[in-house]
Amino acid sequence: xxxxxxxxxxxxxxxxxxxxxxxxxxxxxxxxxxxxxxxxxxxxxxxxxxxxxxxxxxxxxxxxxxxxxxxxxxxxxxxxxxxxxxxxxxxxxxxxxxxxxxxxxxxxxxxxxxxxxxxxxxxxxxxxxxxxxxxxxxxxxxxxxxxxxxxxxxxxxxxxxxxxxxxxxxxxxxxxxxxxxxxxxxxxxxxxxxxxxxxxxxxxxxxxxxxxxxxxxxxxxxxxxxxxxxxxxxxxxxxxxxxxxxxxxxxxxxxxxxxxxxxxxxxxxxxxxxxxxxxxxxxxxxxxxxxxxxxxxxxxxxxxxxxxxxxxx
Length: 313
Known about the structure:
6-stranded antiparallel β-barrel, mainly beta, 4 helices, globular
């Protein structure tokens, strides 16, 4: 039979005999001893933690009675109501104003006793007021202090920024209607005017050159609506740079005296009863509450701003 046209006869796959795989020879590696040369270790750069400063934004009126909270998640929100987050520069300049006493230079302050602080509180309280603002949507409150004998009261701009009717309540409980003379948002200072009264005693102002890091101070005001509250601490820094309300950096007095919402605009005073600064902001971490770092507008700047407002008004 013819096979033409069918092409070549197909072949099966070639047979490949099995191959024996010998065990590989493992040569021991030669370990060269390293030369232990001197190694320079650069010290790591420790970045300063970023802290958020919060202006002590006016305390919302109608706070609940301070008792055991029924909702643990809601309570911190109530305490922090009205606070505005602003930036804080925690870098250089924090202790720029510290002037260490030399052996041949007498300290400008003597040792402070509890009696000094008690006397300071008694001297200051008659000149500190609660500031209450009523608006259509509700209200807010803060603190202030008597600036002069003509009925001028200094407080923070953010306490009265919402507008509305303003009243002040003195240490004797008297309530007086107040007029907002003018404000300076950049320095967070406002000046109010009320009818002069012997019960409203002007406070003395500290000499900035005598203010020292480490000296005791009192924060006086109405935290959480608790009028006439006095807390104690020390001056932690006198030239701390902070950025309030998005403005350029400004120096502030730093303190660990406890200040909270409602302290806004109240005085930070030394053991002689002199105003060192105007309480304005606190530092927080991760949006929490006070961590013992507070800031006050230095009295020399607050005084200059207030004098300018009064002169224009």
